Amino acid sequence: MRIKAISDTLFKRQPKLSRDLADSEKVFVKNGSIFDIEFYVDVGDNHWRIELLAPTVGDQKTTSWYVYTPDVELLSSIILKVVSDTLFKSEPKLSTQLNDSQKIFVPNQTEYELASYLPAANNHTKVAIANAFLGPENRNTWYAYNPDVRIQGTRLELKVVSDTLFKTAPVLSSQLPAADKVFAKNGTVFELNSYSDADRNHVKVALEGAFLGPKNLTTWYAYAPDVEISGNTPGNAPKEPQTQPANPSGPGKALRFPGFDGVYYTNNPIIWRTDYGERGNFTWGEATHYGTRIPVSSSVVYRIIRICQALEEIRYRFGGRPMGINSWYRPPAINSAIGGATNSRHLYGDAVDFVVSGYHPYDVYAALNSWWGSKGGLASSSVFTHIDARGYRARWSYGY
């Protein structure tokens, strides 16, 4: 992770006005200077606390500094290009519903680097601008109307949402020596190289450009409820049309699953009776691509049932509207062939790409975001919404 000074500024030992600090507590940084940082923490009042990768300023010993955020930019490979005169807005609404302080004009051909971007309601994208703070309040988070912008690139980001410990193993911190754990403060943001699910409600993360602890490690285990992850993993661009019943009448094709004695049929509901007193709406055929993708273990079957319960609630939340399934369980070869992520939750059975009749996928995402919370992943492309039950909060846009 790198930051660049975009005006002459001061790095400070405290997040105060420079006039309130002694000369020994601040150091001049010239416009255009670039620094490698391990992480940053938003401490409020337009200040970040940054941890330099190396002590390259001041006394050449200190790596922890406070910076005034309008004076710096976070360098990023994600590029937003404005393709039509537009307004960036503080809420994803019609511009006529907002006052002047809630919107800012952005001309055609303007480009910004983004720290992140996520789906938002009413065909908008929520963007965190990396290299500019706009408007009278120096905001870097705005909503852009999708037809007016193009976004290229991706970046994985981890945000600590509760004081926690990064650990060298997915165990209780009390089981590890001091050298095998490092404190991470609430609000700290790291760039990720990659991440994957781990045992005991942990996430295994490979930090990008951050070397923590006495062993200078980049790979750690984080307790899942204490972190949030955003950004699409490279190469994750699944494209699969909605499944259609191979035999819409009768029970359909007979199926047998590992660890289960009974016979199941493609046209039978996964859940026979929902919590809302109606027959289940999602079938074994939809989960198994009509019998062509048989789960490899009983654990996959149980995960299919678990995510089906979430789908039934989603259908209820949208007033019983029909829902189409684009993709559910995928064996590894199928997942690779259609462009899924290497460690996709579809491989485990508890992920579904779906559409709700009459709703844009971004509106579905916006409606479900708070409800799904930290139960798992939620994402949207322009043609489907993704949900999974990984057990920690992950959010992204597919970018198409």
Percentage of β-strand residues? 35-45%
How many structural domains?
Answer: 4
Query: What's the CATH topology label of the largest domain?
Result: Muramoyl-pentapeptide Carboxypeptidase, domain 2
pLDDT below 50 for ≥5 consecutive residues: which ranges? none
How many DSSP H or I helices?
4
Mean pLDDT: 94
The share of residues in helices is 10-25%
Structural class: mainly beta
In the CATH scheme, the class of the largest domain would be: Alpha Beta
Q: Distance between termini?
A: 26 Å
CATH architecture name of the largest domain: 2-Layer Sandwich
Choose one word for the global shape: globular
Main sheet overview = 15 strands, mixed
What does this structure look like?
- It is globular, with a radius of gyration of 24 Å.
- The chain has four helices and 28 strands.
- A hairpin with a 3-residue loop joins β18 (188-198) and β19.
- The protein has helices at residues 284-287, 298-317, 332-337, 361-372, and strands at 2-5, 9-12, 26-29, 34-44, 47-52, 64-68, 72-74, 78-82, 86-89, 103-106, 111-120, 124-129, 141-145, 149-152, 156-160, 164-167, 181-184, 188-198, 202-207, 219-223, 227-230, 254-255, 264-265, 323-327, 351-356, 377-380, 385-388, 393-397.
- The strands form six sheets. The protein has a 15-stranded mixed beta sheet that branches. It has a five-stranded antiparallel beta sheet with strand order 13-12-11-8-14.
- 10% of the residues lie in helices and 36% in strands.
- It folds into four domains: 2-74, SH3 type barrels (Roll); 78-152, SH3 type barrels; 156-230, SH3 type barrels (Roll); 254-397, Muramoyl-pentapeptide Carboxypeptidase, domain 2 (2-Layer Sandwich).
- The protein is mostly beta strands.
